[in-house]
Amino acid sequence: MVRRPRQLLRRPDRAVSGVGDLAVPPGATWDDLAPDLRGLLDASPHAPRAVTLATSGSSGTPKRVRLPGAALRASGEATAALLGGHGRWVLALPTHHVAGLQVLARSALAGTDPVALEPGAPFTAEAFARAVDRLGTPSTSAPLRLVSLVPTQLARLLDHAAGTRALQEIDAVLLGGAAADAGLLGRAREAGARVVTTYGMSETSGGCVYDGAPLRDVRVRVEEDGRVSLGGPVLAEGYADRPDLTAERFRTDADGTRWFRTDDRGVWRAGRLTVLGRLDDVIVTGGHKVEPRDVETALRRLPGVSDALVVGVADPEWGHRVAALLVPSGQPLPTDRLRRSLSPGLPRHAVPRQVVWRDSLPLLESGKPDRAAARELLGEG
C-alpha cells in the first residue's frame, strides 16, 4: 500500500468550532494516525482539536462528524472499565469509519499497537487467524485480546475452523454496525466466542450501549414516538460545516443535559435497551405495519437460509410490499414453500411477497446492510 504523507491527514476545517482537525482518509493506517491521536487524546497544545470523519451513509448522504478528544477518551475509558481493562486490538474494520478509528484510539489509550489484517486483503478467516497469532502475549497493563467486528465478519469466522479457533483466543468481540441475529449470537457463544453486542454511531464515538446497557456516564432516553436519544460525554460536537443539522440533531435540556436524537426506534425490555430498527424502516403494507427485523429473524431460522435483508418496495396495490433478499445455505427453498414455512410465526401481511436469492447481501463500506441497494435490486424485480 502506498503511504500518504502525514501532513495530508491534517486539514483545516471550518467545523462546529476551531480549525486544524484530523481528517481520516480511506486507507489511513496506525502509523499514519498514532502520533496525532495520542496528542488529541492527551489534549496536547499542538495536537488536532478533533477528529473529523464521515458517517457510514446508511441514512443517505454521509455527513462529517466532529469528535473531540475528550469524547473519544470517555468512550475508550468506559469501554475498558466494562471489559475489565485495556488490551491489544485486532484491526479488522476501516479506520475512516468510527468502529475502526476507535480501535486505534483505544490502542493509543492502552499504550499498545493494534494488529491489522494484511493491507488491501479481503477479510477472511485465515487472515483473521494470522492477525490473532501476531497479538503476542498479553501484558500486565493491557491484559486483554480484543476485536471489533460486524455480524457478516463474525458469521464468516464461525463458518471456518481456523476462524472459530481464533475467536476462542479473543477475550471480547465487540459486535456492532448492524443488528445481531439471535441465531448468530447463539452460534458464537456455543463456539466459545465472548461476544458483546454494541449500539451507537459516529455521533456517539461509536458503540455506547453494550448488551443493552449504557456505558458509564452514558444516558439513554426513549421518546414517546419510540425514538432513541443518547447523551453523555461521548457525544460529538456536531457536524462540520452543518450548523443547521447540528442544531436539529443535538439538543440540550433545561438542566444542561445534551442529547443526540438518533433515527432509531427502541424499547426498554427487562431494564435493557432493545433497538427495533430505524424510524423509516417500518414497512406499511395494505395498512399494516411490518418490522423488518422481525421478518429477518424468522427467515434466518429457516433451513436453507444463511442471511436475510427485508425492505419495503413501492407497490401499486399494497402501497409497499414486503420484499426479501436472501443468501442460501445449500439449495434455495422454493418461494411458495418458504412462505408457508413462515406463516405459523408471522402474520400474513408480514410474509414477504417477493423473494430474491443472492450470493451475498449488499453492504456499505462500514459493514452495515445497504438497504437502499436492496430496494433498488428488489424494485427491478
TrEMBL record:
Residues 295-368 form the AMP-binding enzyme C-terminal domain. Transmembrane segments: none annotated. One of its GO terms (molecular function) is acid-thiol ligase activity. InterPro entries: AMP-bd_C, AMP-bd_C_sf, AMP-dep_synth/lig_dom, ANL_N_sf, ATP-dep_AMP-bd_enzyme. It comes from the Bacteria. Pfam families: AMP-binding (PF00501), AMP-binding_C (PF13193). Residues 52-219 form the AMP-dependent synthetase/ligase domain. SUPFAM superfamilies: Acetyl-CoA synthetase-like. This is AMP-dependent synthetase. It comes from Ornithinimicrobium avium.
